Amino acid sequence: MTIFINDRPFRLTDADRAELLRQKADYDVVLDARLEAIRPAALRGHALILNASPATVTRTLALMLGPEADVVQSLTLSVADKKEAEVEMKSHFRVVKAAGGVVFDGDRILLMYRLKRWDLPKGKLDSDEKSRTAAVREVVEETGVEVELGPKICTTWHTYTHNGNNVLKRTKWYRMTCLDDSRMTPQWEEQIERLAWLNKNEVQNALVDSYSSIRYVFDCLWKGERVAG
Q1: Where does a domain end: 46, 64, 90?
Q2: What is the pLDDT of residue 227?
Q3: Are 196 and 223 found together in one domain?
Q4: Contact 156, 4 (CB under 8 A)
Q5: Strand 2-5 relative to strand 72-79: parallel, antiparallel, unpaired?
Q6: Which residues pair with 98 in a beta bridge?
Q7: Worst-scoring range by mean pLDDT, 18-32, 90-104, 189-203?
Q8: Which domain holds residue 181?
């Protein structure tokens, strides 16, 4: 599981996966929670913590949410019980459910520009609403584009603060096909400045000015296309 805290990846993984990551990734810091105390001053760049307990999850989560986290680009924790660690992590947030879509029109993809970054249409689920229904509704509301729902791409988790509370947003993402864009209009109430149909190369350039969670969605999308192809 990966959540994006202040746009930085915070990953929970099991021991076998952690060993593979250790072999393939170039970590700046590798620590073993069983052998040494995890001190904030020791964490920097891309860090991997082995044998993390639920208490380690809590301590490092507090670090990532605090001002000291500026020097940490990503944090990966290897845990014995991944489900237990996920429950511990989620207990520190109010969880909000959302859904969104990556809309295709042939080879073009719909992106929107909001708050000085490129983004994808998404929004919170209404009471008792299903993710698939909410994803289509939010795309129509934010862009005016009529779409046909396709397969699920992935789920992202990212954090933000609202009224002094830490919020964890779970967003389910779906691939969609454009049916009609004749009424395409950015939803000004959501601070969407403009909408654009971009080809793959243009999307890749736009993602430089986007969020880590949005780049993750496209990584999953394109990885799925390579596997299918």
Answers
A1: 90
A2: 47
A3: yes
A4: yes
A5: unpaired
A6: 124, 171
A7: 18-32
A8: 94-228
